[in-house]
Amino acid sequence: MTDLFDGYPLQQAFDEMLDRDGVLRSCYEQVHGRLTRLTADEVASRADALARSYLAQGVTFDFAGEERPFPLDVVPRVIEQDDWTDIALGVQQRVRALEAFLDDVYGPQQAVKDGVVPQRLIQSSSDFQRVAASIRPAGGVRCHVSGIDLIRDEAGGYRVLEDNVRVPSGVSYVVSNRRAMVRTFPELFSRLRVQPVVDYPQRLLAALVASAPDGVPDPTVVVLTPGVYNSAYFEHSLLARLLGVELVEGRDLYTKGGRVYMRTTEGSRRVDVIYRRVDDEWIDPVEFRGDSMLGVPGLVSAARLGNVTLANALGNGVADDKLVYTYVPDLIRYYLAEEPVLANVDTWRLEEPDARAEVLDRINELVVKPVDGSGGKGIVVGPQATRAEIDAVQSRIVEDPRGWIAQPVVQLSTGPTFVDGAFRPRHLDLRPFAVNDGSDVWVLPGGLTRVALPEGQLVVNSSQGGGSKDTWVLEAGAGTRQAVPGPGEGRPKTARPSEPPTGVPRATNPDDVAANQQQQQQQQQASTTPRVSTSEGTTTGGGSAC
Amino acid sequence: MLSRIAESLFWIGRYVERADDTARILDVHVQMLSEDPWADEATACRSLLAIMDHPAGPGDGEVNRDTVLRLLAHDRENPSSIAGSLLAARENARRAREIVSTDLWECLNTTRNTLPSHARRGPHEFFSWVRERAAVVAGLMESATPRDSTWHFMVLGQAIERADMTARLITTQARLGTGGPGWNTLLRSCGAYEAYLRTYRGRASDADAAGFLILDRLFPRSIVYALHAAERVLRELEPVEGRHAVSDDARRALGIMRSELEFARLGDLLTDLPDTMERVQVACTRASSAIKHRYFPAVATTAWVEEAL
């Protein structure tokens, strides 16, 4: 029997499963071993089951106005504990630096005075919100939730591709991918110690509660969504359900006397913390876009008065700016006096004339991105772009050099992905999520692995035909689970019974035991005098024909 | 109504509920064992089997997920496994065919006929299917069964079985401690997780979770709710009440248990949770046999020794 990994090609990119010599990496041994035992039909039927369950659950994203199931690949992405330790440290460090940066930007701007970042950089960012300077974040936290996008370069090193501290999305897929995978491929988990991801909602809720304004003993937390037509509505509703809090739209809230209330059947209820999934410019028609129907008039002034906490804070977008991104390693050294754990991808700042000239000259081999873009919008990949696209982006760069950055084409790492009946390498990225509760930055062990399903495609965004993979961070030490745990292994358990408890007997209808015997007798008769026993059930019943 | 028919109806209610609850319990356990890298599979499975009154014998070899699935999900001979109770429910419906509505009969019969094909699918899909079939039965009972004794006996069986099974479910957690599935998983298995999170707005403790499953007056799968439901049906079956005491032994058993739970301090309940849950199961067994003696007196052959307590 041929196996589905046959002819798995090794390419220029780093492969998560095989090393340069085509030898299996140890963290993939179990997964590979289990999957090779399946036939294409078996894998396809499991993949169908995954897709069906996603359609049924409504795990969908909005693609050009149409609801589609978010494609979940059957092969997990496996990360070793050692790698994960570095990732988690790097993400924590990055979040701490960005918190410090935002606090500085909307405060004394010491980094500008010390010449670490130019004044111009901040002033010219379209996401710099002056109003945020007047809001003092409770507990000093602005990035309650962050998503740091990572890729792996050709050498296998993790690098940061972009920071998301505005309204990072995707964590719902981490939670639901795991759930679906456990149900569909229980045997893949059976010998591995995969770190659980179910703690995320509790961590998030704890962080949100901790960020409540002072003097509120039992804060009311809500999730603010733009509404059911938002592409991430599934995520908003899932989070609200798992947090056990209300999912509100802008019209459910109102402000009065500088406080925020929600309209309920039991009258008004004070709201203390808003985990908002509405962008800055829509959140308050009084301060931002006057035509916004999604926001709550007066919300910003309530936040300014310290009567409500917005998570994440207003104005965080300046840290997501891709030109600011190029300064983050310097910011880490400046604020934390540490060396960055995770490197950036090399980036040209196009405002610098030399860099711009070089980029315009070599644009065919580079990737250019708008600094304020997300979701893969506006990205031009030089080697894959048409002449017209190149020309258009060149003239836009010349017009607005502040609006663009350029990066070399990085061959994102590849991982085995089920495509057209076989496992084939496809490019991946990784978005770990971090929750900051004010005393600690916690990184969810796992994260969203996005995969570009078309061959050779380097943009992995879901709005660009991408799918996802469940991300497995293996437990330290043992890569495999022992059938019988050795002494002192694993988590300490309290009160493990030395022998199983005795159960209370269960009753059954005594007639059923007799019925079994009768059945056997009937069967014996049936073997001598053939009779269609299946029709019996419908004819013994009362007079009515069924 | 003939006693024999009433007994069948009572058991239809119990068996369908049993299949439903067993599917829920197994689903969380199988998932917990897959998801939790620290799970001690053999201990958890042995304990689960014991609590479900199906202790693993020496002949069962290494006890793991497959053993549990074989014994508690797919065993067609044992009316306490999922397959066995669905088959038994159908047999009981067949005996009461002239009383059971055609819709309900066809539903149970189709369930039996398609059981093998669904049992071949993955555990989670099989469990979902079982829960769906139980929901169809519940829907037919709710919407298309007159509220006469047909309905009363089915609902009575369902309520008693539900109290019993929820108690067993809680026992699995109480016995296993941190090695068990965890209270959240348990709540999820009852379909109670989201209701519970909303009730406590996400900030809840283990004590609240246990309290929710045992004491909540509004959640239909809590023990107190199920005991209330059973008592209500018993009262409707025998509306004439004397001036003092309770003449119905089934109601007595259930009522004493329910008041014990309702009036106890939550903290006291939690300190000896396994014992309390055992008393709930014993009370259900007592009620069940009292109902049998009262409504379905057996003929000459009373050589049945099910409840040796």
UniProtKB/TrEMBL annotation, chain A:
Domain Circularly permuted ATP-grasp type positions: 76-452
Pfam families for the chain: CP_ATPgrasp_2
Disordered: annotated segments: 479-546
Protein name: Circularly permuted ATP-grasp type 2 domain-containing protein
Automatic annotation (TrEMBL), chain B:
InterPro entries reported for this sequence: ATP-dep_Glu-Cys_Ligase-2, DUF403
The species this protein was found in: Promicromonospora soli
Residues covered by the DUF403 domain: 1-296
Pfam family, one: Alpha-E
Coiled-coil zones: none
UniProt lineage: Bacteria, Bacillati, Actinomycetota, Actinomycetes, Micrococcales
UniProt protein name: DUF403 domain-containing protein
